[in-house]
Amino acid sequence: MKKKAVWMIALVLLFTLAACGAAEDPQRNESGTEETGVSSSQASREESGRHVKMTIGSQEIQILLSDTPAADSLYEMLPLELEFSDYNQTEKIAYPPDELDTEGENFGVEPSVGDVCLYEPWGDVCIFYEDFSYSEDLVYLGKVESGMEALAAQNGDFAARIEPDEEQE
């Protein structure tokens, strides 16, 4: 009798673990294409784009903007002086003077360290210095290529100049 009970428990555990390991079903977005909720650091992000530099005092941060409508509209505003502040001990945020074009954009990002995004409901540009959970309201704009530690070390509000990086183009 004990052997039978042990086998039943083992069988239940086996099925439970197998169910936990099953792959998630991809969801479909409004255009009918599959969404898998991939993080921005995966291969789904384009490697092409435009290089910009962000200057905070004497420190430079190199950023590669994606080749997307929202990133293009940010690039067209450059050069910019923006006032950044810390948000949620996760990201630095600033508000560009005009709204970014999000027509045709892919919404939804699971940001990782160095990701530059637009938080569409508020219209702010955010640069993540900590990983964060997936949000349908984020639009991927680009990635910090170097200088992330200088950005993360900023305490309180700070001014930054963002401009095309002529040396990288």
UniProtKB/TrEMBL annotation:
Signal peptide, first to last residue: 1-22
Disordered: annotated span: 24-51
A Pfam match: Cyclophil_like2
Ranges where the Cyclophilin-like domain occurs: 54-163
Protein name according to UniProt: Cyclophilin-like domain-containing protein
Taxonomic superkingdom: Bacteria
Origin species: Zhenpiania hominis
Keyword Signal: yes
Keywords attached to this entry: Signal
Signal recorded as keyword: yes
SUPFAM superfamilies, sorted: Cyclophilin-like
